[in-house]
# Entry
Amino acid sequence: MAILITGGAGYIGAHICVELLHEGYDIVVVDNFSTSNLEGLNRVKYITGKSFKVYNLDITDSDKIRQLFSKESIDSVIHLAGYKSVSESTATPLKYYANNIAGTITLCEVMQEFGVKRLVFSSSATVYAPSNHDGPISEDHPLGAINPYGQTKEIIEGILRNLYLSDQTWSIRILRYFNPVGAHESGQIGENPKGIPNNLMPYIAKVAGGELPVLSVYGSDYPTKDGTGIRDYIHVVDLARGHLHALKAAEASEEIDMFNLGTGRGYSVLEMVEAFERASGRSVPYILAPRRKGDTAICYADVSKAKKKLGWEAKKGINQMCHDAWQWDRRKHGSGSAGTVLLLP
Ligand code: WQD
# Structure
């Protein structure tokens, strides 16, 4: 029996593959490689010494997904596949609704046909409604995504809740990511956004590495300690381990539940700049720029529920996040591949 990981070739997916393989699970990866490539999965094989099957297909293709389920013996699904850029979703909302929502519906329909009813779903803190609340956000915080990307995650969460209510033999865990950053300690896998990064950490890394001249700090007049935005950055390996704990919870009991995956601590943009300069030994020049549309001042997680019900908490601190991100950025075109994984049509 294997765990199917949709979107497993991506930044977060590859780190989840590593953790599941280390834990002794058999995995099967599905990816359409629209925002990733096979090299990351070859590096997963290199890191773990384990092989696994990879299907190059789109989760909206029900025939292909059905063929996969008929060929492979799937026990549970970790569903990550989906577009994830807030700015892109605002420019092309239909692409996001069609891919993220329709893809999930197709996946769940085929899972139901084959009696596979264990699902861990990749959601996001962007499902939460903006608020002036400057404390930690719990899972009970009101929902109210303000961009199409976050709305797809909110809509999918509602679909999964109704699916469970229609058939309570489903076992579903929904994971709301805060801000994943960093890279595997090996320096073999990490975040590799195409073009100019939207997100803070990869942008800072490119400035530190001299690939970009200066960081624009979006907003210095927020009601925070230094006026810049505060976020809950979580090491991607901690995030991956959160999926392992959620999978085991889904194996243990049939219910639906949702969990914040964060550290419970917020850092400002300027604190991230300082931490990265310490980790890299490089300077990160910046300019203070106007606020970015759609940004909130403060967003960090109440992580008590995941600790209590999943037995999981983030362990890596901001210095490790920056160190590992910097090491990956220096090595990303680097070495090491123990051959290639089996890529199936
Ligand atoms: C972090 C902080 C910016 C870039 C996004 C998505 C969210 C999730 C994580 C998918 C903010 C500031 C950023 C820059 C800056 N992705 N910033 N200069 O917006 O909190 O969350 O990524 O699930 O859905 O919304 O992350 O890294 O873009 O911004 O000053 O060049 O850094 O204003 O305060 P964000 P981010």
